[in-house]
Every structure is written in C-alpha cells, then in structure tokens.
Design a protein that fits this description.
Two copies of one chain form a homodimer. By secondary structure, the first copy, chain A, is mainly alpha-helical. Chain A has four helices and two strands; from the N terminus they run H-E-E-H-H-H.
C-alpha cells in the first residue's frame, strides 16, 4: 500500500513539475512590440507585478516538486511535506488568481475605471499569457489533487488527531 | 488534549469568521460617485469581477466557519473538515490575490498598458477596498493557522499515512 501511495505521489509530482515549468517559461518569454499611430508600444511580463509573481511562484513550485521526489519516506523532512504542499498550493492559487484578474482587464478592459483592453494591439503577447495561465492552472489542479490525496490518507475524526 | 484542541480550534474559527464578515461587508458597501471635468464617475465593487469574487469567497468563508462549529467531533462530517479547510484556504488566497492585483492597478496604474490610477479621483472608494483587503488578509492568515494547526496534529511520516 505504501508502494502504491509512493508511486501515485511521484507521478502526480512529476505532472505538477511538468506543468509548472512551461507555465513559468511561457510567461517569461511573453514579449511583443507593436506600433499604434506611430507610437511604439511594448508588452512584457515584467511590466506587470502579478506576472512576475506568477513566474516566481511557478519556478518555486517546479523546484519544490522535484526536490520532494528525493525526500525519503519516514524522515523528519517527509513530515513537513504535507505542510509545505499546502503552502505551495496556496502560493499557486494566488499566482493564478492575480494573473487571471489582470489578464481579464487586458482582454476585456474595465470601462468604469477607464482601462481599455490591450489584447487587440498585442494579440501574440496575450496568447502567450493565456498559454502560461492554462499551464499554471493545470499545475494548480495537480497540486490540489496531491494535497487531497495526502489528506485523504491522514484525515481522521478531529478527536483522533491528538 | 482533545479539549484543548477543540478550544483553540473554536477560537481560531470565530476569529476567522470575525474577520471574514467585515471583509465582505466593507467591500459590498464600497461605493463612490465623483465628478471629473463635468463627467460623472461612479465606482462600485460590482463593476470589478475580482471584487465580486472577493465578496462571495468571504461570505462563504464566514458561513462555513460558523457551520463547522456545530460539527461534532468523531462524526463523518468532521472527517471532511480538514479537506474543506484547505479548499476554503485556497479560495480566500485566490480572492485576496485577485483583489490585491486589481487594487494595485487602481492605486498605481500601469503606464505600459495605458491604465491610469483611479484612486486620486475616488479616494473614499479606494480606502474602502483597502479596508476590505486588510480584513480579508487577516481572515486568510487565521485560516492558514487553522490548517497548519490541524495538519501539525495529523502530519506523520508519509509511510505511516496508509
């Protein structure tokens, strides 16, 4: 049973890392320069704090996912894995939510605030960000499954937790 | 030990609910109308999808925090509490992150995207949103403590989870 648990855990963590890496890479490479009425307009992920946060969060998740694979079961470090899994899950949720919120303004604008959509001018940039967001969402879903899978094993009635 | 666990848990959940309620209420009541060059400008939480998400998330967290208080330890429902705590924690993280990202644009703008800051025109509205964000962040931190406290009790070496 421990073997099966370990196998499923390794597969899920490889899947999470396999989605986190492209999420960070696609976001980092999102860049477009366009000209509008003779004025040059440059779109780059580093111009938006939420996108920088996204890159950092998924780079951390990628490194962590691989690092956990070498943690031996039964060690002190393995006791911390469930706690850090939840922290990484929350970090990725924050990154996807913040990026999603800004992407929505980029695509649809916000007429009440006077913020115009920019995706009509920098279509390739927006597609890149959308690709990163999709890969990031996949990684987040896999992390959610990792957490639920681990918790399902340890979730006992609360009176038994102590 | 189970008594102490339950007491700490109840206090933390009341604190989480006590911060979630004002977070949702302050956001719902954030509304300001101002006039700029003769043009009327209205700022309202419902004009921003992230702020609506924020209200829904914290209303759910408030109701859930109180509901959990009546769950009796040792029942089937109590087995699900840890799983749902993590889900609520992730929901609140997403709400705070999305609202924080949009608030940052509202306060500082994004010159590269041509989005101007609006807080100079609707100061009271921005202060309201900031207040909701602070209350929401406090609620999120308390939820994080609830999850860590519960997990600390159940976190065993992974080999012992099965």
């Amino acid at each position: 049973m421990a073997k099966l648990y370990q196998l499923v855990s390794v597969v899920l963590r490889l899947a999470a890392a396999g989605a986190a890496a492209p999420a960070a890479i696609i976001m980092v490479t999102s860049h477009e320069t366009t000209s509008l009425f003779g004025i040059e307009m440059e779109a780059k992920y580093s111009y938006t704090p939420s996108f920088v946060f996204f890159v950092v969060a998924f780079a951390v998740a990628f490194a962590y996912s691989l690092l956990v694979l070498v943690v031996r079961l039964g060690t002190t470090a393995s006791r911390l894995v469930l706690l850090t899994d939840v922290i990484i899950g929350m970090l990725l949720t924050g990154a996807v939510a913040a990026t999603g919120a800004i992407s929505d303004v980029g695509k649809n604008g916000n007429t009440h605030a006077g913020w115009l959509p920019i995706c009509g001018q920098v279509q390739a940039y927006c597609n890149h960000v959308m690709g990163a967001l999709i890969a990031g969402f996949v990684s987040l879903v896999v992390y959610f499954l990792i957490i639920m899978y681990s918790l399902h094993g340890v979730a006992q009635p609360l009176c038994a937790c102590r």
